[in-house]
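Quick review question:
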């Protein structure tokens, strides 16, 4: 935060009007359920995008990122439309556009961005940028915007300005996240419930393992999974797989379609079971088998894991994790492991050794602590 504030002050000779931030996220459970009208259970990470901003003096907005040394990108926040800006600044300009489209006033801004959310690791660095910019625009305009509306503006920027056809989980987690809480989201109607997830009180940690595996064919495979789910829903005569029951799914004649649908239906059940356990104040260790079952389902039924991911999951369990699974869309990205505090070193070392033995790039391992969502920080 101080880095970006100091950079702003040094460049402009005045302090920013404010500093705002928004986090990346990790999904505890509920994978590929979002486009099936189902349930997801992400939480906000401590890693965040931070924005220092002030109204601009002239008719142009200028935005910079510490992570993009090529310099400032200029556009008019008051008139920018999709197609005007590409590259990283599209996430910023797109949020200005979507904010305006939602009927809110947008003036020109000087904006500095800094983020410690790893880019492209499936931790939603893009939503962190959009939500940080969105909350900054609201602050600069002096308008009160509800968290869910802010998430919708951020998602619109990503879908319609950047052109990435993503669901709304990332932005909802980034705005609704709270320290010590999971964001239980029903993607059918965007209702949110915060669920307690106090790991420290139970002597546990949730480790995030960034496998740094190359993302192979993720785009095409994502589209293929969505199409399979739509075919399954059509064959079952339900509006979405959220409405399907397992007994009917098991009677689907096509083996691949049956397995795809089985993943979605059982994954929704696992999300609900995790929420039920945690809301009833159970020991979080009890969700371990559900995390494991989620991984098996993604590996065997949905077929979206890759060797880097499967090896990290196996090694984490060998090292003492009470549950582990891939998180995110698949074909690389991150693994999460629920680990007794005393086994953190053993789990980390076991995963690192498994990678070293195979000659793979060392994974990054860090604690994922549920943290606060988007807001003003200075
Ligand atoms: P992720 O899984 O990290 O969200 P995406 O491909 O959706 O991956 O978004 C990554 C993109 O978001 C980057 O390529 C960049 O354009 C933009 N981005 C994220 N963080 C920053 C940052 N700190 N500065 C500039 N652009 C950023
Ligand atoms: Mg993203």
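Suggested answer, residue by residue:
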């Amino acid at each position: 935060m101080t880095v970006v504030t100091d950079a702003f002050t040094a460049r402009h000779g005045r302090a920013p009007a404010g500093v705002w931030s928004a986090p990346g996220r990790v999904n505890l459970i509920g994978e590929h359920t979002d486009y099936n009208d189902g349930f997801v259970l992400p939480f906000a990470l401590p890693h965040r995008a931070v924005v220092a901003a002030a109204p601009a003096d002239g008719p142009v907005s200028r935005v910079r990122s510490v992570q993009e040394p090529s310099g400032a990108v200029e556009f008019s926040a008051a008139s920018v439309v999709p197609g005007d800006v590409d590259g990283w600044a599209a996430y910023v300009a797109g949020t200005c556009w979507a904010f305006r489209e939602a009927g809110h006033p947008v003036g020109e801004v000087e904006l500095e961005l800094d983020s410690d959310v790893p880019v492209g690791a499936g931790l939603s660095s893009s939503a962190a940028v959009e939500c940080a910019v969105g909350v900054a625009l609201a602050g600069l305009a002096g308008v009160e915007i509800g968290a869910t509306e802010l998430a919708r503006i951020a998602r619109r920027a990503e879908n319609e300005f950047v052109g990435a056809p993503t669901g709304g989980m990332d932005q909802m987690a980034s705005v609704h996240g709270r320290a010590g809480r999971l964001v239980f989201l029903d993607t059918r109607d965007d209702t949110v419930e915060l669920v307690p997830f106090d790991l420290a009180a139970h002597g546990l940690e949730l480790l995030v393992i960034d496998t740094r595996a190359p993302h192979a064919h993720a785009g095409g495979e994502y589209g293929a999974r969505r199409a399979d789910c739509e075919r399954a829903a059509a064959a079952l005569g339900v509006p979405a797989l959220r409405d399907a029951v397992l007994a009917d799914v098991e009677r689907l004649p096509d083996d691949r379609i049956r397995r795809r649908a089985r993943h979605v239906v059982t994954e929704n059940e696992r999300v609900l079971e995790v929420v039920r356990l945690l809301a009833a104040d159970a020991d979080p260790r009890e969700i371990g088998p559900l995390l494991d079952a989620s991984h098996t389902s993604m590996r065997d039924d949905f077929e979206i894991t890759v060797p880097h991911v499967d090896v990290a999951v196996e090694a984490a369990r060998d090292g003492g994790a009470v549950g582990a699974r891939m998180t995110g869309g698949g074909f690389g990205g991150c693994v999460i492991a629920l680990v007794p505090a005393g086994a953190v070193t053993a789990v980390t070392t076991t995963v690192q050794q498994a990678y070293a033995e195979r000659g793979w790039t060392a994974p990054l391992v860090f604690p994922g602590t549920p943290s606060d969502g988007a807001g003003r920080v200075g």
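Why it works: The pocket of adenosine-5'-diphosphate (ligand 1) is lined by residues 49, 65, 67-68, 88, 91, 113, 115, 119-126, 129 (CB under 6 Å). The radius of gyration is 21 Å.
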